[in-house]
Amino acid sequence: MRVRSEDDVGGIGMDMKMGMAGRSDEVAGVSSVRNHSSNGLTDILVNEVLHGVDGTDIKCGVIGEIGCSWPMMESERKVLQATAAAQIQLGCPVIIHPGRNSDSPFHIIRTLQEAGADISKTVMSHLDRTILEQHKLLEFAKLGSYLEYDLFGTEMLNYALCPEVDLPCDIERIHRIRLLVEEGYGDNVLMAHDIHTKNRLTKYGGHGYSHILTNIVPEMKRRGLTQPSIDKILVDNPKRWLTFK
Ligand SMILES: [Zn+2]
To answer: The domain at 125-245 falls in which architecture?
Structure first.
């Protein structure tokens, strides 16, 4: 991992995130999850929030994404427990990348809860491709995490990472968000683009980072979402999540 300074991105403020993936056996620059105890992993996470990453004084504002697969591996459970312990100490925001199975987000929240994590400070990302059944989504919403639809701009017939998933299009994502708002979960919804490849950038023919504001918000309004409910999703909810307790 290379840490970039604000100068590298033209003075734009960035929120530094740190991730751990039990499966890929990597801890942001540290060789192996397996070689660390849960307490050792917690110390790494806490240090990167309080003091800095990779020998710099650039501190992480968020723990995550914490990557999980399905079924959950033992090393992933250890990372989740370490994350919970760090979150208890710091009151910091956490974001989780669930496995590609609709039971995975439930299992992750249970694991975090048992380890004492604050679920109200936790984002479950990639719900677009993870929980497709409406009743199961509403069941999951009851658990109290943030509910993130973050594949806006990704519309594909064959979702190569999991071909049996009917990946929703942007309009279907909007319908899911409207359902959650109508069911009283407007304070929990988050949206993002998950841009991590060049072809998603405008320079290479993609939608770019303005896609949600330019193209999606007007469609949300056309489909009955009010400006206050959109402001909650785009401004209030991220602000609350990113604030340390
Ligand atoms: Zn992810």
So the answer is: Alpha-Beta Barrel (3.20)
- Domain residues of the chain, as ranges? 11-124, 125-245
List, in sequence order, the alpha helices (H) in 91-152: 104-114, 127-130, 134-141
Report how far ligand 1's centroid is from the alpha carbon of 208 (Å). 18
Residue found by looking up tokens 């409910």 in the block: 229
Task: Give the separation between CA 75 and CA 26, rounded to whole angstroms.
Answer: 10
pTM as predicted: 0.90
pLDDT digit string (tens) for 153-168? 999 888 988 899 999 9
Q: How far is the CA of 97 from the centre of ligand 1 (A)?
A: 5
Task: Say how far apart CA 127 and CA 196 lie, in whole Å.
Answer: 17
Using DSSP bridges, classify how beta strands 62-67 and 26-27 pair: parallel, antiparallel or unpaired: unpaired
What is the tens place of the pLDDT at every residue in 104-146?
999 999 999 999 999 999 999 999 999 999 999 999 999 999 9
**How far does residue 125's CA lie from ligand 1's centre (Å)?**
7
**Crossing angle of helices 74-90 and 104-114, rounded to 10°:** 50
Domain 11-124 has CATH 3.20.20.140: yes
The reply to whether domains 11-124 and 125-245 share a CATH topology is: yes
Token output for 156:
């594909």
Segment 24-44, tens digit of pLDDT: 444 444 456 878 899 999 999
